[in-house]
Amino acid sequence: MESRRISVHGASKRFVRQDKSVTNALDDVSFEVEEGEFLVLLGPSGCGKSTLLRAIAGLERLDTGSIELGGVTVLDRAAKVDVPTERRRISMMFQSYALWPHMTIAQNVAYPLRARGVARADTAVRVRQALESAGIGELSEQYPGQVSGGQAQRVALARALVSRDGIILFDEPLSNVDAKVREQLRAEIARLHREFGFTAVYVTHDQEEALTLASRICVMRKGKIWQSGTPEEVYDRPNTAYVARFLGSVNEIPGRFDGDRAGGLALISTSVGQLPVEYLDGDEGVVTVFSRPESWRILSATDARSDAAIALKGIVEEVVFLGSFSDVRVAVGEAVITVRSMDRSVQIGQEVEIEVLRASLFAHPGIEEAPVDTTPVVPEETPVIVDRRSAVVL
């Protein structure tokens, strides 16, 4: 399978709300996906991620912008180029499986090859290989109604692989299966990506899914990409308060920066004392200091104290048992700090000392941000109706 590069430039799309007001589903979005890269578009409902994916597939018409797949321009609104979905040489996995109930599993997987006129013998070989790669070779003669939801998604995955187009688009494909199956399918998708090296664009609102699968994450909000980076970069050093809050759990301590610095770090005045923090924005005024729960630890009497850390004393307010660890909520003055701990001996009301490395703290301006607007929207113009099930796998 030959992977292909994806380039999106200046993608914009407007929709009209039910009250006739206009919203930008996509607002001048540009990004590139390198050959063999696994890019995850992550964001809440209404952020534009699915609209962007559908535009790449040719299922959504952009107002402005251009898209290249493997160096070939498939959409350029200014030049009036718009290559139909079936000629873009892509595969796609939907949330809803999109399997024909009257066809066997093998026939469903073979459909894109039949539509392209691939020889019957070659089709049979490629279908068998795709089914075996997806771990469902024994289901070839079953019908969709005879398999589980997890197996149905494996069928959809095999169908995406069989075309060998080098680009697979995933539109929240695991949201309809239970947690255990979702975990298994994530591992399967990651394994198949390593094995075949296809270029992937994967849409999800699930942070764990994004961190598990992505080689790069684009966090979206209100039609724009707010941050792009490796999972580690986006998680450990979010560039805005919005990204910090959206990607995983965070502790937040409000404070104020008056311009004082020491050793390259900003000195933030807070209710728990002065905190030396990496503060890239640099503007004086109200700020919020962020930290991840797993960055903190509860100190025992015998633990060595680190010169690179900050230690605070507080009272345990709550212990939330989550299986392999507990979230221990510690009141420190006016702040409540969550510590992710494996220590099961901690009790509510206990006085504890907690510690965090200075390098784990980061700050962003302000305290609160406006909530994400998820008001339903309706298309501004009547969309072109296509057979989504067939178009995306031809």
TrEMBL record:
UniProt domain ABC transporter: residue ranges: 6-247
SUPFAM superfamilies for this protein: MOP-like, P-loop containing nucleoside triphosphate hydrolases
Keywords recorded for this protein, A-Z: ATP-binding, Nucleotide-binding, Transport
UniProt-listed Enzyme Commission number(s): 7.6.2.9
SMART domains assigned to the protein according to its UniProt record, in alphabetical order: AAA
Entry keyword annotation includes Transport: yes
Record-level GO cellular component terms: ATP-binding cassette (ABC) transporter complex
One Gene Ontology MF term: ATP binding
Pfam families for this protein: ABC_tran, TOBE_2
Protein name as annotated: ABC-type quaternary amine transporter
Organism expressing this protein natively: Microbacterium pygmaeum
